[in-house]
Amino acid sequence: MKRFILFLLFPLFVVGWPLTALSQERIDQYEISAELKQDSSFIVTEEIQYNFSGRRRQGIYRDIPVYLFRKTDTGFGTIDANYTVRLEVLSVTDQNGRPYNYKLMDRRGDLRIRIGTPGKYLTGQRTYILKYKVVRAINEFVGHDEFYWNFVGTGWQIPIYNLSVKVSFPTEELPGEFRHQSFKGRYGSNQRVDGELRNGYYYAEAKSLHPHEAFTTNFSFPEGYLSRPNPFQKIWWFFLDNMINLLLLLGPLLMFLFFKRAHNKHGKDPDAHLPVSVQYT
Predict the structure, then answer these.
(1) Which of 25, 62, 229, 255 is least crowded, fewest Cβ atoms below 10 Å from its Cβ?
(2) Is the CB of residue 161 less than 8 Å from the CB of residue 207?
(3) Run means of pLDDT, 10 residues per run, the chain, 281 residues
(4) DSSP 8-class letter at 108
(5) What sign does the dihedral 136-141-143-146 (CA atoms) show?
(6) CB 225, CB 145: distance < 8 Å
């Protein structure tokens, strides 16, 4: 009897599962293009076809990991320190070029872009086109430089059905030592994704990403293909990222030097071998 009931219910599960999948909030299409510049910066354009389905939302969040703690070149050497990738949002529009309201926020190691107008609710499918510039995301090693970028992040709480990544380079002809690879999955995953070079640009795609799964691409260039920041720029970035820690570290030393100087100038005891005259006020 139980088998007969399951047999009758099975078609409902088969038909109902796709309907449930289609009714959930999701990203139907996610197209990313990046233009790598000679100065080691790159411009990213994201076209997100976001499907709210039957839900009413005020907009979306886009979280991009930019705040790190890692080995950092200070200009004088390498130490473990705070490291911030510089990111400048250039525009946030729909497919017709109409701008969306957005606000930048910090969120646990990520730069959060809140897109939408408070009090204005949306439903169905919407297209969001984000364009931003990234600086200080190239890793420097002896003999080579490395482009290592998580194009999606791990902040999406919904599935992504179709993802494509296209990266162009400063030159059409790449050096012989050029290497490339891409990965997808949750943090720490080494699941490879096939990518290929097409007429001077790199292309890779993933047919589906589960919530909180990332898509990371890695390129290796011989040293000199991209220009590196000068030492003064590295020192300035290091100071800005670690200003509070530096003040906490140097503060007591600066106070000690200040009070020592004040004591030597105003509070030094007279020489014990000289006569001391008694003065009344």
Answers:
(1) 255
(2) yes
(3) 46 40 82 97 98 93 91 82 94 97 91 96 96 96 95 95 97 92 91 92 95 96 95 90 76 61 62 48 46
(4) T
(5) negative
(6) yes
Instruction: Decide: pTM greater than 0.90.
Output: no
Q: Compute the half-sphere exposure of residue 123: CA atoms within 13 Å on the CB side of its CA.
A: 5
pLDDT for residue 109: 81
**pLDDT for the residue 248:** 72
| Amino acid in the structure at residue 30 | Y
Residue 204 to residue 164: CA distance in whole angstroms: 6
φ/ψ region of 40 (left if φ > 0, alpha if ψ in -120 to 50, else beta) reads left
Which strands make up the sheet holding 102-107, listed edge to edge?
A: 59-65, 110-116, 102-107
Q: Are strands 110-116 and 102-107 parallel, antiparallel or unpaired?
A: antiparallel
Q: What is the C-alpha separation between 144 and 220, in angstroms, rounded?
A: 7
Which parts of the chain fold into alpha helices (H)? 2-23, 231-241, 243-266
Amino acid at 131: K
Instruction: Give the whole-angstrom CA distance, residue 143 versus residue 137.
Output: 17
The pLDDT, as a whole number, for residue 189 is 87
* Positive or negative: CA dihedral 167, 168, 170, 171: positive
Q: How do 195-198 and 179-185 pair as beta strands? A: unpaired
